[in-house]
Amino acid sequence: MADKNLGITPRATSYADWYQDLVLKGELADHSPVKGCMVVRPYGWAMWENIRDVFDRFFKETGHKNAQFPLFIPLSFMAKEAAHVEGFAKECAVVTHYRLKAGPNGIEPDPASKLDEPLIVRPTSETIISAMYSKWVQSWRDLPILINQWVNVVRWEMRTRLFLRTSEFFWQEGHTAHETEKEAVEETLRMLDVYRKVAEDYLAMPVLVGAKSAAERFAGAVDTYCIEALMQDGKALQAGTSHFLGQNFAKAFEIQFTGRDGTVQNAWTTSWGVSTRLIGGVVMTHSDDKGLVMPPRIAPIQLVAIPIWKTDAERAQVVGAIDAIAARLKQAGVRVHVDDRDNYKPGFKFNDWELKGVPLRLELGPRDLAAGKAVLARRDQAGAADRSDKQVVDAAALETIVPALLETIQKALFDKAKAYRDANLRRANTYEELVKTLETSGGFVLAPWDGDAAVEAKVKEETKATIRVIRAEDRGTKAKAIGTGRDTEQWAIFAKAY
Amino acid sequence: MADKNLGITPRATSYADWYQDLVLKGELADHSPVKGCMVVRPYGWAMWENIRDVFDRFFKETGHKNAQFPLFIPLSFMAKEAAHVEGFAKECAVVTHYRLKAGPNGIEPDPASKLDEPLIVRPTSETIISAMYSKWVQSWRDLPILINQWVNVVRWEMRTRLFLRTSEFFWQEGHTAHETEKEAVEETLRMLDVYRKVAEDYLAMPVLVGAKSAAERFAGAVDTYCIEALMQDGKALQAGTSHFLGQNFAKAFEIQFTGRDGTVQNAWTTSWGVSTRLIGGVVMTHSDDKGLVMPPRIAPIQLVAIPIWKTDAERAQVVGAIDAIAARLKQAGVRVHVDDRDNYKPGFKFNDWELKGVPLRLELGPRDLAAGKAVLARRDQAGAADRSDKQVVDAAALETIVPALLETIQKALFDKAKAYRDANLRRANTYEELVKTLETSGGFVLAPWDGDAAVEAKVKEETKATIRVIRAEDRGTKAKAIGTGRDTEQWAIFAKAY
Known about the structure:
By secondary structure, chain A is an alpha+beta fold.
């Protein structure tokens, strides 16, 4: 079996091992010798750059600018917003010295360089950014401030999983300050919708959109909104969050301005972020036992072209022709790679690029060339029993066929993922039904919940499932709330999650 | 005087204050509450993104891929290459704990979370990257590895200057591993030439190109090459370095491979970097007492369009017309901003955008509009006594006029900077002449130097000047070396430097 040769654990054997095999053998990332920190390899980083560029374009279209704030946060800043420090205290990397020296046991931190105030490696940047906004904002005319940064952050983790949970990860964090509460809430929801759009239209990852319960809120937020995706093992993945921070950080850091009416007011702030965790989400949403499946819009390579030959004369002819096709496709905006390695056979290359998840493979041999044809094979249908993954097309029309086919694949991936997600969004009317559905079916389970934190905690203790999202569109149907039996119109979506 | 109103210290009064005024009032960067760390504001970061994109394109064209390696480096890794740790020990931020807790004096690092092995916040990444390459390389077929990363690094600084010297800064670091010494040396020089090209063709910053003396070499390198620019105060700025690391890091981290002949060999590695320091270099190369002067090719805004009106009817008309012009210019690839703020007068806006260094200003009033004309004003000639900075042009031809004029400005900035640099590259034949020229004229001074480290140290002690670069093209003219009087054909270029 080809699958066996590639050494990928089938999903049915171990979903966790399958995931790790794909990330490592697909060369997206690697473990590093630094506990909890990953190396994102070129193929994974190229994927991230594509994702980043899409978000960045939408951020700029909605009026945001990029900047860069310090990596370090003074300890006292972390402590200024009570809920915030409470939320992050247990996972902070702390810098205490600024010099090394030779000691009795070798090189060690120089005791003479101990900092008066320790510095925290940012787990998120609300505090330091609020401190700067306080300096920049005087009048209502200075608002809104709409800034984003693409940076690394550190939240110490003991049990790590590449992309999903590592001590260092890479993300964007948008931080905005507004004159009114209304504007800040609008901003929070606007960016939530950008997240939904990119997740669905570019990552082909359908998401549920709504608010978090109080227990799942960001430390320091008034309201946290999120997009939640469903992985193939029935577990949810939080894929992005957008926070309405009210005046909490503005008060703690004195982001004050003179309003239109001449009074001094506190600003209203928001923050929102998505991270390299999305890469893990894409892997777990689309891939199969043969390897990765990349959505075309963010694939580092959209089409790999593989020349097929036997003799040297054929090789020269076919490689020349395939280079010309690649040039034409690049001209048409397709990200193409020609695999003309001569120390591997085509069959090996097919498996190799299937593992890497390249959406389309183009095969060209001497007979195709003579006939003006080429073969296209779809990664998302690889291994179809009826060979429907393959089609013979006119080589002269590739510039129009390939871009259209890539879009077809993009849509097919989304539709497939959405069908799976829809089939795994179930309804429970009672506590018992909720617990049973979570245990037997997994997936998302919608249940009437009146906001009772004790019930939420009990579900978590019993099933490990949490409230993932509370959607506006689920509100309204009257029911007896789980756990309390009280009347409620609020429905929450529970799931076990990454 | 307009200059006075903007509050910019003239260069003649204090070059250092002038520089800081430009960076702060030009809103490129700001001091942060974190000792030694800067905030790069949106205008400065947009400039950096433009610079980054140019470099990134050249890196990719020369076969490199981006990746991301951990922020933290285990202490023991730093110590593996002796010269390397020696060079960086005095400026390392050290992480010693991974959790906070409430203590008797408030929140503090939790003693129970003390790390067995402290982690260094990367000052550069040769060690951690070499450790990964060691894992990835087995055969000569795995080489070369050509990887770059865009990241933040930390080198602790007590006396900081925005962009020029801060504890945290932003850079790219390329790290490559090769099968042969020859290939590694070629790579080192190839990237040096990319640096020269971007500095000169995009930043309009002429540079001297060559090797460092042993004393100025990167800690762990066999050879360090550099590009050196000259600031308006006669001081040099190291603008980029490219290191041939020989087998030093390969041996320390066991980057070994089976060669074509079947023997196990150590790889040959290189590293090369440019940083946000380049922004400081651009500021100090081109700007004047009115403010920043941005080279068009990297300017965040290339043209600012300012509508001029008196009545509301005029306003509607002129702003409509200027928006249409802006749309046409954007279509032509020009980065345009329309300043239609109605709470400022045109004169204020002129000064404001001159301070920000926008290369071209377009003015459009009702009479221009009626005549089908517009006024263009060049920032690099602002304040010309004969008003030669301004020209009236046909509004219909702006799409062709503006791009051409931006290129004219780009070239004019380079030519001006080069004329200044050439006029300040002097020759000294004796030690006394060298010291006198450094003291009285500043600038670069070329002198015969036979490699004697004691003489180099003496010059530094006496004048604070260092050897900036040893150029291949200066070699060959026989002379008596400064300090030693020995015959030499080597000439070194000295200067005081940032």
